[in-house]
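Final paragraph of the annual report: two paired records, presented back to back.
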Amino acid sequence: MKNLRSTLRLRFMLLLALCVALTLGSFWMLEVMRKDTEHMMPAAPRVAPDYYVENFNFVQLALNGQPRYNISGQRLTHNPGDDSFDVTLPVIHSLDKEQPPMTMRSDTAKIEDNNSKVNMYGNVNADRSATAKSSKFHLQTEYLLLLPDDDIMKSDKPVEITIDQSKMTGTGMYANNATQELRLLSNVRGTYRAAPRKP
């Protein structure tokens, strides 16, 4: 009877040891597979900003090497996920000598597509002084899409435009500084005042 008990105990101990070994082996295999999968999976793209510049000012050149416009602001932050820039208190000056100069300001801006799109948000103001070829121009809105390479401004928000003494309001706008084309798209209202005659 003692021999039978010893044999059963020995078999139970061997079976228990085998189960423990199989369990530990399974955990080891799962860990190896998890680590291999982590190495094979591509790293998640970085989305947090990777650098910022305070009180910046940079000039964008045209293809002929002449300055087109400059952008300055309180803070510029780079977003590596989409290679865009967030700007606090941006100021944009057009520098094209062949077109009337214009200055644009807003609370914030987002620069996208290799600096070819500038989305301006909050208290957007655009000003152009009167020249021999153009009238004094002022625009106010809450959103403006600026395409600086094409001298085009667009908005789908309400806008208020003052040209000399005349004032217009509307929702949605398209303006081309190069061709002096201006369109308001809906809900257009305006007051026209003729410029005073020169003696």
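The closing record of the year follows.
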Amino acid sequence: MATMEEQIKQIEEELRKTPYNKKSQHHIGRLKAKLAHLSEETERRRSSKGKGSGYSVRKSGNASVAIVGFPSVGKSTLLNKITKAKSEVGAYDFTTLDVVPGLLEHRGAKIQVLDLPGLIKDASKGRGRGREVISVVRTADMILLMLDVFETNLKVLTDELEAAGIRLNTRPPDVQVIKRTRGGIDVNSTVRLTKLNEDLIQDMLREFGIANADVVIREDIDEDRLVDALATNRHYVKAFVTINKTDLVTKAYLHEIEKRLKKWVVVPISAETGVNIELIKDQIFDTLDLVRLYMKPQGQEADMEEPLVVRKGTDVGGVCDALHRDFRRKFRYALVWGKSAKFPGQIVGLEHALEDGDVISIIVRR
């Protein structure tokens, strides 16, 4: 009987050889589901055995950013430029053989930036310690995709991340699967499904080992999105692209690269000379969706020097949790000044969503 790794290779080969059309869609959908299920199980077994030595990174700061790129694109130089880290720099491949963290302090936020060994083709399959590198990438709150101005094949990087279950600049599928003990698989949708039929959905669930479930679908998904909904190892994260060494080319050359990458937010830089370094700091802060809140203790002036940095969409309850474990339990009301307030000093409750620059005073029971 074939091992899991052999089965995965056989399915990958069959998927490569099978042309996608209306007749083959059902077969391909089942293969993709089976492949994802086997890959998950293989990953689970590998983790339980503790196979291989991974990188250990202790998270710190308000958020973390992973710099992902090919070897020798200037990741270490950039890290050294935007943080106080000292990552070894060399003009040859694989200078960074470990994960080097640095702390970017910008607009009141403290952001951990990770310089990782370069990714290469088939990194998702373990080549060049790729699995260990990707395991660190999966813990990051944002990914900075770094390219050399003379090597701008972004697809190799994104394909490796995609193969490892990392989804860039997208949201999880709006699909709910509630397992049950009997009764088969019932599929209900709130939208018209144009890409999948009920039989294929049921068969793909069975390939995932799900025989009885209620399925509710709220978007017009395809096979890949359904696989993502069923898989448990998907990581959804924001990303943007920076192109390094732009001081070595003409504006026309750079413009052509940016045209090819028009679907992405692109920040051209020169890490060596410092061109656009402040711009890339701003883009990191904005992509992370961080907001600054200024705390005003009752009866005192607001502290406008040291903001509380939180994620966009944080409400007053979230601020209470960040400040002290007893604040939510003892909460009476809060006073808010700023963009989220209808008028200065508005009295609000725990569910009030806050915006960047708000001043907040939390009143608790004594």
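The mean pLDDT is 91. This concludes the annual technical report; the extension proposal builds directly on these records.
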